[in-house]
Amino acid sequence: MRKLGLIVNPIAGMGGKVGLKGTDGVEILAKAKECGAKPESPQRTREALRLLLPLENEIELITYPAEMGEDTAAECGFRPYVIGTIDVGQTDATDTKRACEDLRAYGVDLLLFAGGDGTARDIFTAIKDTVVVLGIPTGVKMHSAVFACSPAKAGELTALFLQNRIKRIREAEVMDIDEESVRRGILVAKLFGYLKIPYERRHIQGLKAGSLPDERVSQQAIAQDIIENMDSDCTYIIGPGTTTRAVLERLGLDATLLGVDLIHGRRLLGKDLSEKQLLDHIKGKAKVKIIVTPIGGQGYLFGRGNQQISAEVLKQVGSKNILVAATAEKINSLLGRPFQVDTGDKGIDQMLSGYFKVVSGYKERIVYKVTH
Amino acid sequence: MTEESKKKYRLRENFHQAKWDEPIIFELHTPGERGILVPEAESEVVEAVGNGISALPENMVRKQGPALPEISQMRVLKHYLRLSQQCLGADFNIDIGQGTCTMKYSPKIHKMLAGSPKVTEVHPWQDESTIQGALEVMYKLDIFLREISGMSRFSLQPSSGSAAIFIMASMVHAFHTYHGEAEKRDEIITTIFSHPSDAAAAAVKGYKIITLYHDENGLVSVDALKEALSDRTAALFITNPEDTGIFNPKIAEFTSLVHEAGGLCGYDQANANGILGITRAKEAGFDLSFFNLHKTFSAPHGCGGPAAGALGVTEDLIDFLPVPVVDFDGEKYSLNYGIPHTIGKTRGFYGVFPVILKAYAWIMSLGAAGLKEAARVAVLNNNYLLENIKKIRGAASPFSAGKHRIEQVRYTWEQLTQDTGVTTEDITCRMADFGFHLWSSHHPFVVPQPFTIEPTESYSKDELDEYLEGLRKIVEEAYENPERVKNAPYNSVVHKIDHSTLDDPEKWAITWRAHLKKHR
After folding, report:
1. Of the partner residues B209, B224, B423, the one whose CB lies closest to the CB of residue A364
2. Distance (Å, rounded) from C-alpha B520 to C-alpha B516?
3. Interface residues from chain A to B (CB-CB < 8 Å)
4. What is the pTM of this model?
5. From the CA of B355, how many Å to the nearest CA of chain A?
6. What's the pLDDT tens digit per position in B199-257?
7. What residues of chain A lie within 8 A of the CB of B228, using their CB?
């Protein structure tokens, strides 16, 4: 019998409708409640779980007590196996993390969670990518790519995965924005890492169209194209992401997934560099290029998860020396929305706006719009 | 008379597809059963050639006979007739749901012409003097297509649309080679809603592909094209109208910018059905342009018959056409192999003649005014459906809201899916319960939950209404009882099947041998 773990972050999303950017922190939660915020998670979780009811006898649902899953599961008609203990009404991130560890120890096949970026980050902190997970989107902040596009889709995808009808998994970004900074008017999105989620062929209805290469194959094709066109005199700033990681892997370089690296003549000059280190490295160099891929589920090229490549760095390198790489699948998942830039410098954002020739495969380019 | 009693169509709610539960032909195998007893060779023959096998090189002689099924003629006949009854064939159903395919009526008399011994008994190696009629048909079709497109000369060699695109890419390469620029010009530009083969066939030729994406109106901006253009541009290969049914009104500006950059412009006229006699490739600034005779010219399309892509070019490119072309000196028709910079032969012989003949017959039977009328009716039918489908709850037509479309529309069921969980695929399966074929492929899958409808000129208003009634009925079911739709089909040959194995290479069995290996 397949085991499904469920974690509901009962307060996720409460800050959104009252304009609080998120619900991280005890005081903010209290303020949200004062403003009349109502729990969003249970309702959205029910929408997802409803689609799993037909599998009730084929799966074992394991969850945490009361508002962290038990209540919602029971309301849907499940009889969940409940583990762990909580202070009802007083849960926080430590409960989420403990629940992840307990569910992993129980051997769940998939961990379904309801929450936002903060919840995803807690899960990543607790268990890294040791368990396949999937997010029911309920939070205020949704920069991570670990969420299904709707609660119903989360339910559907979970069912397919538990029935072994989806076997492939993909790596999806976990990102979070520092809420404190946002409330002070500064947006700092950090790329925390990657969680494994069931691989959904986005927007491809039906499998009759044949087997398209999965994202990793496309990433390898992109990497090969970039490497063949590399200039040995040029210094390359490599942004974070699985697409750019493929370039470094193919070059046999041990690079960072989350950080910004620097290469020259196919050799690594520096790993996980800060803005200042980047500026020091490129100072006085005639040829510098940036290889970057959009980060997260919203198609940000700069300003989310790769702030090290700052407005100043971009200014020095120039927009003509930016090489954007993205799989067609990632571009299509934006449903026509342009790539975004938010470097904090309006002049630089303006400089980056327009059309880019994006490397989308081996000898393949997509001309795609960038806005700010 | 009430509105209801005036209705001349009705949904076939009692439709049921034949279901023969027919085994795979290999399972009908009975050792020793024979369809034909081949007579023994006469003694003179044996004397002359021996047993017929000993003359073959030893390494080419099979050690064991092929594992073909052994079945009598009558059982073979029944087997295939049963299978044919299990298909929703083009002559049975209202198959306007095969958008982009241009499904239209192929007059049976044209099929009879193509099946006449005057056609079937002709051999392409016959002397030209004995096939003057066939050559005349090819020559005159070339002349007709010149008139329809404004191009200067056509090759009827390409045996499909994709073959025509590949030949366009080869001619582009030959042209730039002649001008000493082939090495530098290694990029071909296309758009995301153009025929997918425009990118694929050009990539097979070795070109790098740049794909332009649409804006919120479904149009590609001039700025996007400018970003793509450079001294590396070999050509633009584009479909217009695109598979959204939206016509790019700036096409002349596009071709002009490509020419300024030193590139050529190739027109994929896969979607020509709504513009015959209305707009032409030449005036839009194209250098190469091809028609799918099997789509637009009723030959018919897809599994209904073989294909032909007739490729026309302007004066500047005639010298690069594949050989042979058909010439006429005022007295006799002949095959001309003497084109100066030809890319050579691109297939055996001269083209798919039965398709060429059917297209010729279709043009002859309609005349110039008839072609234009066919295009206008195709557009009218499409916009009639557009207005009615938009009124169906959960359906929408993305891009260019409020504007008419040319000959097809790529719709979306995204809202319906969000409301009910019912997807395009579920609707596709349920439509089969009422005797309709709805296609399930809508490359490039940019539109979520897509469905593409192309009604052409062949279908009557009653048929379009019947089809709409089918869609309305299913949507009603989706909102009231989504499981009813999600578990369809009920009246088809097979019921709901699990497609997930199609994504699992370990389960694929494309041949009987693979089936035995993986599943027995």
Report:
1. B209
2. 5
3. 51, 150, 152, 156, 160, 163-168, 203-211, 328, 331-332, 335-336, 354-357, 360, 363-369
4. 0.86
5. 27
6. 999 999 999 999 999 988 889 999 999 999 999 999 999 999 999 999 999 999 999 99
7. 357, 365, 367
